[in-house]
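hey can u check if this looks right to u? its 325 residues, i copy pasted from the old doc so theres a chance i mangled smth
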Amino acid sequence: MSSSIASYASSSPVPPVLAEVVRSGFTEGHHRGSLVVLAADGSVELALGDPAAPVFPRSSNKPMQAAAILRAGLDLSGERLALAAASHSGEAFHLDLVRTMLAEHGLTPDDLRTPPDLPLDPVEAEAYLAAGGVREPLTMNCSGKHAAMLAVCVRNGWDTATYLDPSHPLQRLVGEVVAESAGEPVASIGTDGCGAPLMAIGLVGLARAFRAFVLAEPGAAERRVADAMRAHPEYVAGTRRPDTWLMREVPGALSKMGAEAVQALALPDGRALAFKIDDGSTRALGPVLARALGLLGVDAPVVSRIGRAPLLGGAAEVGEIRAAF
């Protein structure tokens, strides 16, 4: 990474602009947020906004949740482990494996406590509706994680009816893994969109957690999760998703986005990043992520692909959302 990149944190209570919306040469809007980039040794290379302030990482916490499931004794690997850390697109291969994982432990989709939803991927959602599908717990993007949580409860004789309660043994273990991986205590516990407990940490802690996963010793729960996600990225996201593209095309990258415009990523040498767009707009994720990857020194065609966010006027391209740092 270039030494000319300044490292600073804003003293203003208003987060800095991370992306701007430019239409027909006129800047019509801004997306503010906080971001941190870590050097290979774990030191903070760049800080924008207040990356130490706690946030809900949303689905960027899923690798830690999957590691807790392994530590609790469920022997997952390959596609099953990748799906346990997934925000899947609802493609047929995702749903088929969720059903299989449930059946292997005497469970059915009726045991899931995910809210009924359509497939996350718009293309899949349209095809699903056209085929007569309705919102189901199975098609909700977190059903793979929930199937794994239920399976480890069955294995350990834990109550499956209360597996989403923050006081449940599994969820207490998740909290321990999140805090350990982030190197900081959990600041708050909320409820995620899927109904699972959600642990708040700072963006610096989130980046450190991803760094810890890629640097963990082979065979450790954290490394097993990272390796499964990187080997089977289509199960972590889907065939048309940036996390999949990154993990396929950037050697050794571990990437996971979360709702409300959160993103975390680590490279195999320990470089890492995490950011959150304050207004939760996912349209700014790509440009901000591409710029941050550029600062990490990642030079691959997928970076430009992810960073492209055109604005249309009629059927013509008239502007873009672009990084502003």
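Confidence is low (pLDDT under 50) at residues 1-8.
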